[in-house]
Amino acid sequence: MQVILKETIDTLGEEGDVVKVKDGYARNYLLPKNLAAVATEGNVTVLAKQKAAIEARKKEQRAAAEAMARKLAAAAITIAQRTGDDGKLFGSVTASDIAAKLAEAGIEIDKKKILLDEPIKTLGSRTIPVKVGYQVKADVKVEVVALTAEA
Question: How far apart are CA 1 and CA 7, in angstroms?
């Protein structure tokens, strides 16, 4: 089945693209969630008329994503965690912890966009990739340090 994407979907294509997908995927996911429309002759004609507006929206989204990527690349966050005698953490640093620290720094990002393969369980400095949007990724510098006892 051919459909016209109403939104950019990473695995399929960008907004306004006409793509071929399995019938079940279109009927059960794309169409009910209003992510796509069936590529009928009438819908393709409407798409051609809206092409300029779609391109302007894509350009605006890419500019916003690139601005966020620059902001994230400039950010370096430090997370203090309790540690044992051997330098291992009690618990771990997760994507939620990184998102919370970024929010404290004034950068709002969804924790699902932080591409952390597994939780951080040791001290040290790392570079974590973050999916900013519109096929743009940025790297955030995260340093995990030992929590000092404050009396």
Answer: 17
76, 98, 79: which is closest to 147 by C-alpha? 79
- Beta-bridged to residue 81, according to DSSP, are 146
For residue range 23-75, what is the model confidence (pLDDT) as tens digits? 999 999 999 999 999 999 999 899 888 888 888 988 898 898 899 999 988 98
Alpha helix (H) residue ranges in 5-138: 23-25, 41-74, 95-104
Alpha carbons within 13 angstroms on the beta-carbon side of residue 146 total 8
What does CATH list as the number for 2-62? 3.40.5.10
Total-model pTM: 0.73
Tell me the CATH number for domain 70-146: 3.10.430.100
